[in-house]
Amino acid sequence: MYTEFRSQLLAGAGTSAAGQSARMAVLAGDGATGVQVSCVVPGLNEAANLRVLVPALRACLEQWCASWEIIVVDDGSTDDTAELMAQWSAVEGIRYVQLSRNFGKEAALTAGLEAADGDAVICLDADMQHPPELIGDMLAAWRNGADMVYAVRRQRDDEPWFKRVGARAFYRLLSTARGVEVPPHAGDFRLMDRRVVEALVALPERTRFMKGLYAWVGFKSQAVPYTPQARRHGASHFSAWKLFRLACDGLTAFTTWPLRLVSLIGVLFALLSLSYGGYLVADYLISGNAVSGWTTIVTALLFFAGINLISLGVVGEYVARIFDEVKGRPLFIARQRRGRAKRAAKARSQ
């Protein structure tokens, strides 16, 4: 089974001179879809930051390309994001997708990717930590043949130590997945070629860990280092619990080592139990020493009961993922869509 892409202009774009010429033609105003660059901005209660980000992003795109669109995906905001975007979506080049409720960032990203029409699609957060000025470097790398250009943090010293340690451990565990190499310190801030976007949108899974999916689809990738800016307004909506759940989604979606670890623990304790049981029998036959009383037995039973419950919990996580997949519910529901892309004069006349 293969995925057939609708974008044909850039289908052969790569490191060849023909591929580079095709992508330069796109930025010059001859895009395959009529839109050269799409920027997807998911957000939850980020109205204060959007007031700063959207004008800054618009000014940058005006410099780099003739046709573009900014797609703001409202992931169930309760602030005045809807009122703000009702005004902004009247401006050519700015689009607004409002989800019916909070579906999570991964679903909001997917909604933006499905809505994007650009030959190059850029994802960035609404909290102003992803500098729009870096998009110029991303477009240059894409023009030179990279299918995916992802931003990598130079350092994480601004984060608490437990978050840095947790991130390091998570990426190390995720690296055990065969065929999936998720670059550490890389997030959702990236540029993707139209072919990459269509490959991501074509994936049918409901539980989506986007950082893993970016790596799974492959394509030629290039890193661009950057230093995140300070958050302009508000605080992060990712609590420790949400980060833990996201890590669980990533591990269960791309690795099976937790299941194998449970099996290894079971084999290990079975061998230890057999060894200890053999020792007790031999000690009784040789020395006549009886096994100690109920305290030892009850402690051992409680210990192994805990191991069994942990094992059931690990298996249950995978069963829950299967349950979510087989229900086949949509990943998100859009309440409304507004706005239109800014297209080049040639595209508008066709």
Describe this entry's structure for a reader:
The chain has 350 residues and is α/β, with parallel strands linked by helices. Mean pLDDT is 77; it is low at 1-6 and 8-15. It folds into 2 domains: 17-237 and 330-349, Spore Coat Polysaccharide Biosynthesis Protein SpsA, Chain A (Alpha-Beta Complex), CATH 3.90.550; 257-327. The longest helix has 34 residues, at 294-327. The protein has an 8-stranded mixed β-sheet, with helices on both faces. The chain has 12 helices and 8 strands. The protein starts with 16 loop residues before the first helix and ends with a helix. Its EC number is 2.4.-.-. One of its GO terms (cellular component) is plasma membrane. It is a multi-pass membrane protein. Pfam families: Glycos_transf_2 (PF00535). It is an enzyme of class 2 (transferase).
Overall body shape: elongated
Radius of gyration: 26 Å
By CATH, the superfamily of the largest domain comes out as Spore Coat Polysaccharide Biosynthesis Protein SpsA, Chain A
**Pairing-aware structural class of the strands and helices?**
alpha/beta
Largest sheet: 8 strands, mixed
Instruction: Give me the side-by-side strand order of the main sheet.
Output: 7-5-6-4-1-2-3-8
Range of strand content: 5-15%
CATH first level of the largest domain: which class? Alpha Beta
Order of helices and strands: HEHEHEHEHEHEHHEHHHEH
How many domains?
2
| Low-pLDDT sequence parts | 1-6, 8-15
CATH-defined topology of the largest domain: Spore Coat Polysaccharide Biosynthesis Protein SpsA, Chain A
CA(first)-CA(last) distance: 35 Å
The percentage helix is 40-55%
Judging by the overall fold, what is the CATH architecture of the largest domain? Alpha-Beta Complex
Counted beta strands: 8
